Each structure stands twice: as C-alpha cells, then as structure tokens.
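Module 6 notes. Inverse folding takes a fixed backbone as the condition and produces residue identities as the prediction. Think of it as a translation problem where the source language is geometry and the target language is the twenty amino acids. Below is one complete input and output pair. Work through it position by position during the lab.
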C-alpha cells in the first residue's frame, strides 16, 4: 500500500489530467468590422478591453490548460455576450448609446478591466490619462449620437 501523500498526489494528477479532457471553446469568430475610434483611443480599447470584449482575443498559453482555461473562456464568453466591440457597427444608435453609458460607468468606477485579469496582464492597466482619454471620447460619441 502506498503512503497517504503519494495517494493524494496521484489523485490530484489524475484529476488534472482528466480536467484537460473537458471541452472548452477558445475560438475567435470572424471580425470583419469593429468599433471606429481615433487611433489612440482604439489602441487603449484594444489593449485593455479586446481580450474579453471582441472577436480578437489574444488567448494566453494558460487558456490551454484546465482549470485556468475554464476561467479564461468563461470571462471571454460572458464579456463578448455583454459587449462585443468587433460587432459594434451592427448595433443601432440606441444600443450604442446604452453601451457607451455602461462603458463610462465601468471605466470611471474602475470595475473594468476585471481585477483578476489585471493581475496577469499588467499592460492592460489604465493610467489616469488613458481613463480620461476614454471618458472624453465616450462623452463625445454620446453627444454625436444624441444629435440625431
Ligand atoms: C478579463 C475579461 C475582461 C476585460 C479585459 C474587460 N472586461 Fe468588461 N466585462 C467582462 C465580463 C466577464 C463582463 C460581464 C460581467 C457580469 O456579467 O457580471 C463584463 C461586462 C462589461 C460591461 C457591462 C456590459 C453591460 O451589459 O452593461 C461593460 C460596459 C464592460 N465590461 C466594459 C469594459 C471595458 C470598457 C473594458 C476595457 C477598459 C473591459 N470591459 C475589459 C470581462 C472583461
């Protein structure tokens, strides 16, 4: 009979191996269009939001390893289903206005990007200057949309 720690280790390894067999969806649907914004605004959106809110996700290596892959794919799935910036041009003006308001809220309250993501993606942090760049652009867009 093997000793207890060895048995625990075997169980853990077996579970980890079995976990790799659970299918996860790690796809990037085609992105033929995307949100239009001045290049410096677009660069910030791309860097800080696109991984979860677009069809242009840069999948990290650990998105291939369960159980990390479950968290990553869940974030991307939920992020895209809430707000997809590569499908933005398909939204009507009213929906765009709604989501601009939601983006304003998430950015000014610093709830986006998600903290758990920022832990591993230091580069996606928003500086104060970038936050105000985004907020100014959002206000401008909301103003343009409400002129119609
Ligand atoms: C790590 C993935 C991730 C990143 C990066 C991320 N988000 Fe999110 N976002 C989510 C998830 C997941 C949800 C859904 C939250 C929920 O359902 O509780 C969400 C929800 C939102 C919503 C709410 C949509 C609605 O229906 O009202 C907005 C707006 C939003 N995010 C904006 C942003 C912006 C702007 C950025 C970049 C500055 C960003 N997010 C970066 C994962 C992410």
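Target side of the pair, the amino acids:
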């Amino acid at each position: 009979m093997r000793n207890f720690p060895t048995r625990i280790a075997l169980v853990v390894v077996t579970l980890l191996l079995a976990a790799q067999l659970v299918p996860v969806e790690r796809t990037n649907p085609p992105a033929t269009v995307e949100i239009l914004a001045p290049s410096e605004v677009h660069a910030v959106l791309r860097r800080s939001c696109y991984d979860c809110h677009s069809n242009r996700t840069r999948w990290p290596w650990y998105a291939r390893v369960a159980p990390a892959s479950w968290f990553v794919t869940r974030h991307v799935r939920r992020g895209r289903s809430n707000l997809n910036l590569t499908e933005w041009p398909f939204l009507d003006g009213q929906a765009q206005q709604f989501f601009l308001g939601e983006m304003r809220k998430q950015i000014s309250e610093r709830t986006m990007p998600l903290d758990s993501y920022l832990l591993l993606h230091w580069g996606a942090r928003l500086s104060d200057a970038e936050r105000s760049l985004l907020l100014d652009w959002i206000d401008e867009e909301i103003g343009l949309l409400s002129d119609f």
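Reference fact for the lab report: The radius of gyration is 20 Å.
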